[in-house]
Amino acid sequence: MKIQPLDLIIIAAYLVAMILIGLWVTRKASKNLGSYFLGDNMMPWWMLGISNAASMFDVSGTMWLVTLLFVYGIKSAFIPWLWPTFNQVFLMVYLAIWLRRSNVLTGAEWIRTRFGNGMGSTLSYFSVVVFALISVIGFTSYGYQGIGKFAAVFFPWDVSPHVYAITIIGVTTLYTMMGGMYSVVITDVAQFFIMTIASVAIGIIAMNRTTPEMIAAVVPADWGNLWFGWKLNMDWSGILDFANAKIAQDGFSLFTIFMIMVLFKGVLASVAGPAPNYDLQRVLSSKDTRAAALMSASVSFALFIPRYLLIGGIAVLGIVFFSPQLNAMGEKADFEQILPYVIGNFIPVGLMGLLLAGLLAAFMSTFSATINAGAAYIINDIYKSYINKNASNKTYVTMSCIVTVIIVIVGILFGLLTDSINEWVMWIVAGLYGGYVAPNVLKWHWWRLNGFGYFAGMMTGMIAALAMTVIPWVKDVPEIYGFPFLLLLSLIASIVGSLVTPIEDLETLKKFYKQIRPWGFWGPIKNMVQAEDPSFVPNTNFGRDMVNVAVGIIWQLTFTLAPIYLIIKNFKAMGITIVVMVATSIFMKMNWYDKLEKD
User: What is the pTM of this model?
Assistant: First the structure.
């Protein structure tokens, strides 16, 4: 079923509206870099939270998550912890507060608050910029792959998926370039409500067209069970044999070992804080520390419930109706075709246009936020700091527009190098981020880490992650199992680099500790600060924060499970999930929200 004229009109109207919003806010965003990249720190926390949720609601990620639910069943709710999705819980509990206290424009600029202005700080500064650019280009390439495949199925013109991808990316780049963070957030809010309507519609269609019996007839016996043993025990033999090959290829068969790795990696990556991307920019854009925490909390609720109505609906319709086509593909079965198949065969005219606009909105939200964050690093942390320190605000904003276009072009070029969304996903979440974790955990919690140690850890991790993609005997190992080695390499480099070089300037360390107030191994610095200022009260909330994180992860998981159970009509499991959701919400209200400080 190809798209009809009415649907094209709806999509065209949506694209025009996004460009008009970019034009509307151009003047407001062009005052200075703070306006362009942080929206003057004046946007409400709930708008930033919805914007952040919309930015994570992307087409490529949706295709990936649909594949996971299709193949792994309810247990797939745990697999996105690879990102890790529960990093939003760490942010809401304490990390967003620490970050917002810094009052900086980018993550690289934050480095100055931690390491001062010496050579070590400069090297660290550049390592963060390099990491930010690699990750932005990686996410741009990943998004490029997904939107091209998606659009080619629906639009009536017989052109390459690459042409569709470049066209849609061009429109997104245009309004992002014109309006900066104002444009990104305002369009994200509009896009979020379109996506929510689309998600509810697909969920309702899936519930009306399928029954639990129809689902059970075409999936393995353990598909609907959340709990797992030592092994996954998901046998698709005789149903969809290629699914067994995918499970083996992913390396998830020993599911308990996989989950240990996911939790190990996920907790460390979360403690490290957000990577230098759109997530961090939303925190820095918040009005104050309380708003930053509330913004991060709102992301989980706003993102997971509507998104998993969409994912659950598409996966269930695909399982019941698309399995024969996948079987016919044999070893070339492409699970990424499930989403376009469902929309093309089950959505009526008019509603299809709205749904496609919603999915385009999902892509555009992620893409616009990503390139806005990437441009911030180049302009603020390279151009303004080292090339043209005294330029006018107009010059900085103009250069931001030029750099945005360059980032997009480079991302597209890399996107042409791979045909698989999954390849990009796994390398970004397990490979690249594996090298990021160690120095970024230490920067918060160990006073002795200096700029040279941070630089050594970051560069070692990035070089090792890139090497994983080219070394023959390494690139075939699932990325999640390569994570401990990347972590160990960068950890050793960070510690050794710090111990063989001088301690950072004590005044810088004392100022950082007093301003950010982290908990961790800060004994010598804490003693100095208290000796100079006896009224200073150190952060003693480690125990409470960790309890809130543990409960918060369970709280967040219920937002994933409840919509899936609703779609498959397992109302008993859904009822239990809602009881847990209410209980954990009450706990978080009493032990987190009621105790949020007001800076």
Answer: 0.82
